[in-house]
Write a structure and sequence with these properties.
Length: about 475
């Protein structure tokens, strides 16, 4: 009976005892040096991602002058006297949580060529989200979810839609020479600018075209990546990658558009010649599927890459290699009623793929980036496999202590290499410029931005040019708090 009373008292003490922490936590540990992700996108082969996380201060030993070994012992740190009840404190150590809420409004003007109407529309949204993160000496992880409602209105329609974004990330050093990194993100939105604003970056084998503009369309997109790194020695690493992504076009999408799924895998070797120069090579295989088998492609690439740091704030990297592409297309030659007679077309070709990335970080908040790439890739899924060119530029800087400026621009050219759509194309320009200001205190941020998308396409209906531009603002509140020591 006495033993049961002891356990009850111990449990009450645990639940009523205040949680203590000895240091503040931020999510900076979730972005380890060398991580290639920018706004959710991988940028190709990169050096081994390393990170440093503090273990935190340890409890001070008891003062023997005040208390002998035979006297009262601390309940939570001496399991030889009572069962250990420090489980929750250990689980929550080095852990923090962030809550956010955002409201915004976007006024946009849509126009097109012959057969397309010109009209004004409005998109209002409200959302809330949570981010939980933990940083330990050998493990860093975070989980993010944001959900909300949007209301789209125009002269000819009025409807509501659920917008969701979720992401998870783990960096785990499970052995002395091994590191595992897992990332996954999901987006469901009817905002035409959100994919561009969220995923602006250099395409990779598992990364589709950052933005495809389809009026009144709902986009569902997921991207998952696994990266396993083995440290061969002080200057040599092996890297194994794998990934899966899908992109679906829902309400408002023409019936001729294809949903797509992409799988990729590869292996790379890298040698660090010095603190400034690293180079290596590898092999990747990408499998592309469009319309659940209507068109498929397999792309193999041998790649060499190098990265050079001119200074701690200025880096240049590039990659180049041959690609072998095989395509298989089911082309309808005769249709009657609900059935069609198909001809299977096979094609293969070799081309040279290349890309380069330049980064200049003048300060913690003043930076410039420039990316170029050319390769056979998903291209957003609307054309099947495409010969894809892209140039992207980003710039950010503080204007005053309270105001900051950010801008980005992408030009892309997609030329279909699928037998069914060999003469189809999509040329696009997307850009945004915005300012942000802290209001009230650091927890409140006001953002105002102008964004535009201009596309010339020939993949459904008649060749046409579609344009949309919008002026929007968001007000965001973020509350973050560590729990655990």
């Amino acid at each position: 009976m006495k033993r049961q009373h002891g356990l009850i008292l111990a449990t009450v003490a645990l639940l009523c005892g205040p949680m203590a922490w000895s240091q503040s936590f931020t999510n900076s540990a979730l972005n380890p040096p060398g991580d290639s992700q920018q706004n959710g996108l991988p940028a190709g082969p990169q050096p081994l991602a390393t990170y440093s996380a503090q273990n935190g201060s340890q409890d001070n030993p008891q003062d023997s002058s005040q208390q002998g070994s035979s006297g009262p012992q601390e309940l939570f740190t001496h399991p030889e006297q009572l069962p250990p009840l420090n489980l929750f404190r250990e689980v929550t150590s080095h852990t923090g949580v962030t809550f956010n809420t955002t409201v915004g409004d976007l006024v946009q003007y849509n126009s097109g060529g012959s057969g397309y109407s010109r009209y004004w529309s409005n998109l209002s949204s409200a959302s809330a989200g949570v981010n939980i993160f933990q940083s330990r000496s050998d493990l860093v992880w975070n989980l993010t979810y944001t959900g909300g409602l949007s209301q789209s209105t125009a002269a000819s329609y009025n409807y509501s839609n659920l917008n969701q974004f979720a992401a998870a990330r783990i960096v785990w050093r499970f052995a002395k020479r091994w590191q595992l990194r897992i990332k996954d993100s999901f987006l469901y939105s009817d905002d035409p600018f959100q994919p561009f604003l969220t995923y602006l970056g250099n395409p990779a084998p598992n990364n589709p075209n950052p933005a495809i503009y389809l009026p009144q369309n709902v986009l569902e997109q997921n991207q998952g990546d696994v990266d396993l790194t083995y440290l061969l020695g002080k200057h040599d690493t092996l890297n194994f990658i794998g990934g899966e992504s899908f992109q679906h076009y829902l309400r408002g999408a023409p019936s001729s558009l294809w949903n797509s799924t992409t799988y990729t895998g590869g292996a790379f070797y890298q040698h660090n010649f010095s603190a400034r120069l690293a180079a290596g090579g590898g092999y990747t295989f990408t499998a592309l599927d469009f319309g659940h088998g209507a068109s498929r492609a397999g792309v193999q690439m041998l790649e060499g890459f190098a990265a050079y740091s001119f200074s701690p704030r200025t880096t240049l990297s590039g990659w180049v290699g041959p690609e072998l592409t095989n395509t298989k297309d089911a082309v309808p030659i005769f249709c009657l009623g609900n059935g069609c007679l198909y001809e299977i077309l096979h094609n293969h070709f070799v081309n040279l793929a290349e890309g380069a990335t330049f980064r200049w970080q003048a300060s913690s908040s003043n930076s410039f980036g420039l990316d170029f790439s050319h390769q056979v890739t998903n291209g957003g899924g609307v054309l099947g496999a495409v010969n894809y060119y892209q140039v992207a530029a980003t710039y950010s800087r503080p204007l005053t202590r309270a105001w900051s400026l950010g801008a980005g621009y992408v030009y892309s050219s997609s030329l279909s290499v699928s037998g069914f759509r060999a003469d189809q194309y999509l040329y696009g320009s997307q850009g945004t410029v915005g300012v942000s200001r802290r209001v009230f205190n650091d927890a409140w941020t006001l953002n105002a931005y102008y964004a535009f998308i201009h596309q010339s396409q020939n993949y459904f209906g008649l060749p046409a040019t579609l344009t949309t531009s919008g002026l929007g603002f968001t007000l965001r509140y973020v509350w973050d708090h560590p729990f655990g020591r």
